[in-house]
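W.,

You were right to be curious about this one. When I first looked at the sequence I had no strong expectations either way, so I just let the prediction run and decided to look at it fresh. Below is the sequence, 944 residues in total, followed by the output.
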Amino acid sequence: MKPKRINFIWVTLVVALTVFSPAIAQTSDGSFTIKGTVTDDNGKPIDVAYISFNNAITAMSNEKGEFQLRNVKAGEFEYTASCIGFETAKGRFKVSTGSERLVIKLHEQALTLKEVTVTARQSAIGSKSEIGQDAIRHIQPKSVSDILQLLPGNITTNPTLNSLAQANLREIGSDHNNALGTSVILDGSPLSNDGNLQALSPTRNGNSSSSNADDMRNQTTAGKGSDLRTIGVDNIASVEVIRGIPSVEYGNLTSGVVIVKTKAGHTPLEVKFKADPYSKLAYVGKGFNFSHGGALNLGLDWSQSYSDTRRHYMGYDRLTLSLGYSNVFNAKGAHPITFNLRSSLYSNVNNRKTDPQMSELELNYKNKNTGGRLSINGNIRMNNWLTAINYDFSAQISRTVDTHHNWIATPDGVVTDNMKTGIAQAQFLTKAYFSDYKIEGVPINIFAQVKANKYIQLNDLDYTNIKAGVDYRFDDNAGKGLTFNMNNPPKSSSSQTLRPRSFSSIPALNNLSAFIEDNTRVSIGKTWLNLVAGVRVSNMFLNKSKSGRSNIFVAEPRINAEYNLLDKHNNSLFDQLSISGGFGISNKMPTLLYLYPDNAYFDNVSLSYIGEQSSLALIQTQAITNTQNPNIKPTNNRKWEVGVNFKIGRVKGYVNYFNESNRHEYGFSSVFLGMQYPRFNVPHGAADLAFDGSQLSYTLNGKKQTATSTIATQNALWSMPDNTSRSNKHGIEYSLDLGVFKPLRTSLNIDGAWFHIKRINEKNYLNYISSTYDYVPMMPAGYGTISDRVNTNFRFITHIPAVKMIFTTTVQVVWYENTRAVYETPDGSSKYTLSADGKTYEVQPLGFYSNNGSYTEWKPDYAKDNKYSLMVDQYKLYAFNSDHVNPWVMLNFRFTKELGKICELSFTANNFLNTSRWHVNRNTLAKSQIYPDNYFGAEVKFKF
């Protein structure tokens, strides 16, 4: 690391301590110790309830339901209290004498409550959506990605375990950079996919684990986001999604944050069974209270899913075991310590076995991912010049094995195991054979974070909370990597071939970050302003000799604000009217896959001679060992947004405009390689062939001779990790809750969004035409797509507490959907021109490589020369026309009914009218399915 960068991190920490220093002089004069209890409706104490004052001062109740907060200044506080199995309680509490006692009563989650929330709650600052347990159990998800369908702008997809489950925020469809840039925080610790190297050969196939057009490449997440199927959804207590600007305590991200909290504390014994035409799931869980304090929570779930019920040889199995322990130590002392331990084990298997009735496939593969996680977090109440110190530590390890068994009917003929540049003797491989390869990865992640905060009550209503901390991330991979029998290698289909590669020799990633943030609320007359601002600095330490570059340093300032204009105290119409906004910069550091690619190997046959008396095969190998990209940069996100939030009686809602710019998104770019190699000439009848490393000799008619050779040329491309694209997004998100229409006991919740996404290739690229063509053109950057979608979900929620029932009918309307291709310059003008005959659009190259490796700048006259005209890219006249999808409507249904006190029945139906329609592209006449298939699922839960 450069000295000035080290100094910058330490200066940040010194500034944090300097900011805290005025508080050191404060004494306990004018401060109070606030005591309270948390109970249920029957007055029974609730253990492990989480209490927060102004989102800054926190505590956890003990086995008697008691909690206390020391050194609290006089003033009025907003508090929240939450515990698994209970509705979250919110309120205000005024401290004036210190004798006040806060008694919080939590209502057990049940359909007998007057209000049950089965949608996402929206928060202004950071564009947050909070999804509680009632909403989670109502939609019957199979993975966390199914829960994200409740976010504004998302549309319904059928739950499945047979495809990757990734978190895509503010996206139309899916995008691997969006998923990679979404930070998933599980019980306080980020899930890391940075050590994932499950790719067959990055320099040849990018981030794919298979060179075949099979489903194996769709089951691995190298260079993508974490696979959310590894989290058992039935053990989830809540999910919070930050789509806007997150706090600076969250780093190594671009898209946003998904915060998942699992169950903790006492819960009844739960037994669940889920089923649909494609899968079956079972779950059992129980939370125990200990007499001496603390609680233990256990959960076990099993799932089995098929992508097609007619093909049970294509299936997915998941087993997840989770354990959680929570306690408060020294609860009545000066420095109480909250302690939370979470651990989980999981095993995910996706396999395709040869079906006896479909033996002609001659193919089977398996993706198996087993692993474990351990996290420890909590806080220490300091009650002095520091309010609290929070600690987080986690360790994750998994073993991912991808195995592939394939019948090679047309072998390459000659193969070699040479791993150095030069000519070496090879072996013949002319008969069909089975090829087996395995990719074993053992990603290891360690995360540690320590942060401290100082809460200062400015007056009765205003406060400031200063937070600073450091965190460290370690990512490594100890797997054996790609292994296979070199005598029966995977088919190459080109001059670029594969070699085994171990992952354990790749250097680990080390990230060190520091951050400081202030959260202040200030009254301005009868209005108030909430301002959250901070900065985060991070440094990634790299092995320069192997990565080809120095360390990577980033600084990320972020700010959020909410200004409350109106409330009950200053007007008679609005209960609340506020405007909010924010700006922030964030970065996603490159992963191991993009920093340390494999070597590229090219094999060209110099001799393949099979005679009656002698046979010999020679291959010239060219090994490229400097495949790293020394100029690769972190993906950079700049985001700003502004919104309006309001509440008038029972009606509340928000509208938010956002604008995002992503630069340096990850991918792979092509690199030209011009090869020259000898082809030896050996006449028929030659014997005693021998190669000494430079010359080939043979015996013909009793005479020893030296073989002549001719020089052959070969053009080829290999893939280098690179920052290949950029994307710009803007849009409007909205949500409106019209409250309950009491005669029908029905409420209407409306949410939706307009997304506009422009994604452009920002790198010039090589267009490989054929192995027989002498030139490889360099095409200009600027090709991409522009997508728009406007959708609204109308959720009619009918809740009848008397019969313990709730059902939701969702009318999903996609008003507008449009996609078009573009090829443009940075200023937005088109790069394509109409051809001379007016039949096509043309894009001319920037230049081209010849087979001798030389590069020639392009001249417009070359387009008229038949020798070069093939390099001009041709597009149909409709290629850049819009593809517009007509509006469409789909109806979904959710139903939940409690049967007595021990049983609950849920039912879900997507597209329950079984509407079917295909969209025909007016330009290409290609067909695509608009509506998802009709889907039905049911769940029964028993509580004891």
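Here's what jumped out at me. Residues 221 and 564 are 43 Å apart (CA to CA). And, maybe more interesting for your project: The two ends are 57 Å apart (CA to CA).

Coffee later to discuss?

I.
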